[in-house]
Design brief:
- It is built from 23 helices and seven strands.
- With 491 residues, the protein is of the alpha+beta class.
- It has four domains: 150 residues, no CATH class; 75 residues, Orthogonal Bundle (Arc Repressor Mutant, subunit A); 102 residues, Helix Hairpins (Orthogonal Bundle), CATH 1.10.287; 114 residues, Serine Threonine Protein Phosphatase 5, Tetratricopeptide repeat (Alpha Horseshoe).
- The protein is globular and about 85 Å long.
- The relative contact order is 0.08.
Length: 491
C-alpha cells in the first residue's frame, strides 16, 4: 500500500473491515509511530489493541480463552486448580496474575515474559480471520503499561500465512497473474521457512508469477499467501517485464576492530530479577518503581534510588545476554532515574500523591461495577456438539461458527463448522475440502479435519486420498468409532 493510502486510513479513524482489512489497519498504525488504540468489533466479539511507537503492546478482548490463565493451562504450564487459586489472589490483591504466579514459583520471570509475548501474538493473529465488522482508531491513547512489543511486519506476514482466508490471498495475488514479481525492498527481520525463501529467491530474479506457481515446488495456495503478504508489506512489486533485484550499493571501508569488554554473564537470580522488574515497570509510578512509601522523605528516596540504580546498572549485563537482558536493564535504569527526578521535586511528588489517591478511588468504583461476561469458545463448541447429537444442525452451525470466530487457530471449531455446512448443503464437497485444507494449515493436528476430509474424499471416489486422511485421523483418534466405520466403508 502507498503512504497516501495508509494516511487515508488514519484520517478516516473508523470504518468496516470489509473496506479496510485488519492487515491494512496494522500497517497504517505502524507508520504512525505513536500511541493509538484500535478497537475492533465483530458481532459479539470485541478487541482493543493498544499501540506504542507504532507497535502493538496490549490486546484486550471479551474472549475467555485469550486470558493469560486459560492460555497457560492450555499449554500445560500450570494446572486448572493452580490457575483458579492464583486468579482469586490476583483479583483480591489487585495484582496481575503473572506476578502472583511468579511469587508462587509456578513460573520463572523469564518463562512468564515468553508466555505473555506468545499470548499477545496469538490474540493479535485472531482478527486476520474477521472479514466483517467495524473498527475505530483513537489517538488519545493512555501511556502504555505493557513492556511487550510485537513487530508489525512479522505479525502481518504470519497472519496472512496462517490465519487469513485463502480467498483473500487469492484475490490479492491476482494482481500478479500474467506479470512478473520482483523484490522491491529488503526483508528486514522477517523469519522465513524454506518454501517461503524459495519464492523470495525467485522474486530476486524477477521471475514470472505463473512460473513461480508451477515450478517453485511450493504449494500454489502458499505461493498466493506469500506473494499477498509481501506485496502488502511493499517487499514485492509487480512488474510488466523481467526485473532482477539490484541491492543498493553500500561502500565498505576497513575499520579498526572495536574493543569489546568481556562481561561475565549475570547469575540466574539476577536475570530473573531484571525480567520480573521489566514486566511490571511500565504500569508502576515513581513510588512503586523505587519501592518507597508515599510518607517517606528525600533521604529514603535517595537511598532507594541508589539501591535500584545499582541493581539495574546496564554494564553488569553483557550485550550478548539472552532475552536482550542488557537492553531491559538499561530501560529499568533510566526509569529509576526518571522516578527519582519526579520524587526529588516536592511539587511533582505532591501531584503524584494526589493522582494515586484518585486512582485508588477509581479502582474501588470499578471493582464494585464488576466486569463484562466473557465469551467462551469451548462452551460454544460443547453446546454445538450437543445440538448435533439432538439433530439440530443449523443451531449447531451457529455455535461452531461463533467458536471459530473466537479462536480461529483452533482447527476443531472450524472443521465442525465446515462439516455442518456440508451436511446442511450450504457448501459443496469441493468447497468443504478447501476449508478443511485451510484448517489443517492452521492446526496440522486437527483430528476431525482429517476425519471429515477422509469421508469427503471417499464420497468423491478418491480412495487413495481418503485412506491417507483417515489413517492420519486414526493415529490422532485411535479409539474413535467414526474413524473405524469410515475406514470399513472404504474397504
Amino acid at each position: 500500500m502507498t503512504r497516501e493510502q495508509l494516511d487515508s486510513i488514519l484520517r478516516a479513524r473508523s470504518g468496516t473491515l470489509q473496506e479496510t482489512p485488519y492487515a491494512a489497519l496494522l500497517l497504517a498504525l505502524s507508520t504512525h509511530e505513536s500511541g493509538a488504540v484500535l478497537r475492533l468489533k465483530r458481532n459479539q466479539l470485541e478487541k482493543q489493541i493498544v499501540f506504542d511507537d507504532g507497535s502493538p503492546v496490549e490486546c484486550r478482548s471479551n474472549i475467555a480463552t485469550e486470558t493469560l490463565g486459560r492460555f497457560l493451562v492450555s499449554l500445560g504450564k500450570i494446572t486448572e486448580q493452580a490457575c483458579h487459586t492464583a486468579l482469586n489472589e490476583s483479583t483480591s490483591r489487585g495484582v496481575p496474575l503473572g506476578e502472583v504466579l511468579v511469587e508462587k514459583k509456578l513460573l520463572a520471570p523469564t518463562d512468564l515474559y515468553r508466555m505473555l509475548q506468545q499470548n499477545l501474538g496469538r490474540k493479535l493473529l485472531e482478527p486476520f480471520s474477521w472479514k466483517s465488522g467495524i473498527f475505530e482508531i483513537s489517538f488519545d491513547a493512555p501511556a502504555a503499561s505493557s513492556a511487550l512489543r510485537v513487530k508489525v511486519p512479522q505479525l502481518i506476514f504470519t497472519g496472512i500465512m496462517k490465519v487469513d482466508t485463502q480467498e483473500s490471498a487469492d484475490e490479492a495475488a491476482s494482481a500478479a497473474v500474467g506479470k512478473f514479481v520482483s523484490l522491491a525492498a529488503g526483508l528486514d527481520e522477517l523469519r522465513l521457512s524454506a518454501d517461503q525463501q524459495k519464492v523470495v529467491e525467485a522474486a530476486k530474479r524477477g521471475v514470472a508469477f505463473d512460473e513461480i506457481r508451477t515450478k517453485s515446488g511450493v504449494d500454489p495456495d502458499d505461493v498466493h499467501r506469500i506473494v499477498a503478504a509481501l506485496l502488502l508489506l511493499g517487499i514485492f512489486k509487480v512488474t510488466d517485464k523481467h526485473e532482477p533485484y539490484m541491492p543498493p550499493f553500500v561502500a565498505k571501508f576497513d575499520e579498526p576492530t572495536p574493543f569489546v569488554a568481556i562481561v561475565a554473564p549475570p547469575p540466574p537470580a539476577a536475570s530473573d530479577e531484571v525480567m520480573s522488574a521489566f514486566l511490571s515497570y511500565r504500569r508502576k509510578d515513581s513510588f512503586d518503581l523505587l519501592g518507597v512509601p508515599e510518607t517517606e522523605g528525600l533521604p529514603a528516596i535517595n537511598e532507594a534510588f541508589l539501591k535500584t540504580s545499582e541493581k539495574f546498572l546496564p554494564s553488569k549485563y553483557p550485550a550478548t545476554a539472552p532475552d536482550a537482558l542488557h537492553d531491559k536493564a538499561e530501560q529499568l535504569f533510566f526509569a529509576a532515574a526518571r522516578a527519582y527526578a519526579e520524587l526529588a521535586d516536592p511539587d511533582r511528588r505532591e501531584a503524584l500523591i494526589k493522582r494515586r489517591v484518585k486512582a485508588r478511588e477509581q479502582a474501588e468504583l470499578a471493582a464494585k461495577a464488576g466486569t463484562a461476561a466473557l465469551i467462551d469458545p469451548e462452551v460454544l463448541y460443547k453446546n454445538g456438539c450437543a445440538l448435533v447429537e439432538a439433530g439440530k444442525l443449523r443451531d449447531a452451525l451457529s455455535s461452531f461458527e461463533l467458536a471459530a470466530e473466537c479462536d480461529a487457530q483452533n482447527g476443531t471449531y472450524a472443521a465442525e463448522a465446515a462439516w455442518c455446512r456440508f451436511q446442511l448443503k450450504v457448501s459443496p464437497a469441493a468447497v468443504t475440502l478447501k476449508r478443511l485444507k485451510d484448517t489443517l494449515r492452521i492446526d496440522p493436528n486437527c483430528a476431525v479435519a482429517y476425519l471429515y476430509g477422509g469421508r469427503l474424499h471417499g464420497m468423491l471416489g478418491n480412495k487413495l486420498e481418503a485412506e491417507a486422511y483417515l489413517n492420519r485421523a486414526a493415529m490422532l483418534l485411535p479409539k474413535d468409532m467414526r474413524v473405524v466405520e469410515a475406514l470399513k466403508t472404504l474397504r
